[in-house]
Amino acid sequence: MKISAIAFDADDTLWENESHFQEIEGDFCSLLSSFGSKEDISAKLLEVEMKNLPYYGFGAKGFTLSMLETAERIMGHQLEVSLVQKILGFGKYLLDMPINLLPGVEETLDHLHGKFPLCLITKGDLLDQERKVKKSGLGRYFSEVRILSDKREMDYEVFLRQISCRPEGFLMVGNSMKSDILPVIRIGGHAAYVPFTYTWAHEVHQEKVEHERIYACKEISEILLVIREVY
């Protein structure tokens, strides 16, 4: 079967992301340590994040607002301006964090570039994701860059119609079973699953998934073998 397009997720597929968020979450929990354990504060933060997703979407800005709301819930009138400023500082760090490419990313894209149409499909805050793409230096490899509010089946279907690609000719590469892999499989596409060391709780998929159109890779360079053997 001929590949018509290959799309890559961005965060934790091409560059590190979740590790920075987990580092900041640890700092946030330490800041509130006199009000509860790290586990309890993290659980409260996740609860607030999930409640706020329909309003703020994904990304550092929504995470920062959720940290502020969590701190207010836990501390009440004891929440001081100095602590608010520290939390805002956490958010600004995430909005300007270094972009560290994962091993094999640039070599893999360089090998595929010119042989297949390459696309980037990510979700999150528009300005933040645009900044990451620019800072990564990888934008030159992609003929299409799409920053979505979410990555559901309907979002992939719309994208494929826009680039005139049938699902059976589409290969998605990503680290999230929930956002990158399963929605693409459900619409008839193919997906290469490249897990990252850390996974945000919202993206965790507990059930083991096996499917003839899901190709498990330990690192991104292995998709070259998948393409060679399967296509």
TrEMBL record:
It comes from Leadbetterella byssophila (strain DSM 17132 / JCM 16389 / KACC 11308 / NBRC 106382 / 4M15). Pfam families: Hydrolase. InterPro entries: HAD-like_sf, HAD_sf, PGP-like_dom2, S-2-haloacid_dehalogenase. Keywords: Hydrolase. GO terms for molecular function: hydrolase activity. This is Haloacid dehalogenase domain protein hydrolase.
